[in-house]
Amino acid sequence: MVQDADGATTGSARNSGGQPSEQGIDRIREVAAGVWSDPWWTVPNALSLLRLAGVPVFLWLLLGPQWDLFALLVLVFSGVTDWLDGKLARWLDQYSRVGQLLDPAADRLYIVATLVAFVIRGVVPWWAAFALIARDLLLTLCLPVLRYHGFEPPDVHYLGKAATFCLMYAFPLLLLVQGDFAFDWIARPFAYAFTGWGAALYLWAGLLYLGQVFGAVRLARARG
What we know:
Blueprint (H helix, E strand, L loop, with lengths): L19 H18 L5 H21 L4 H24 L5 H24 L5 H23 L9 H19 L7 H40 L1
GO molecular function, one term: phosphotransferase activity, for other substituted phosphate groups
Subcellular location: Membrane
Membrane topology: Multi-pass membrane protein
């Protein structure tokens, strides 16, 4: 469900007074100002920054020395901190707009970094990685469009959560079966299954998000 800046559901964006284009730009500026005014130095944000700092390390481990075990540990660390920063934000009441941006950004960067490394190493076909990366890029470009028309980003769909969950399990398993893993005959079918399920759900969720964006923009223009 897409909501406007006041919490109303899709279709309630208003264009009263002033030119629509000026209002849209003002909304984007207001959101940007809110990000800068929010508290940055919180414990959850520090964990998110640590996750982001691990992305280039993770990519170097995969493509440089190809130390897959250490890369796997970085990926596990990312998963633990991803869970922990959300818990700490609730326990310490340290919610911030910065944290809401950093957390999904780290998830997306790990997914993109893993896909790029896997394509270079021949683990996954380039067209599959391109489809998943293009999905994220397209949805990222939709965010300023929603802000321009006075809407919040779409709520995270359960299919999106399930897709990310599957991919985050698939990537470590795919890493394990690349080397001389003792039980690779057990891990391999699970790796391929999680990869297939995750990719399909990831694209499906992307189409649902895109449909919400088109619906919000169409209704905003009809009411403008």
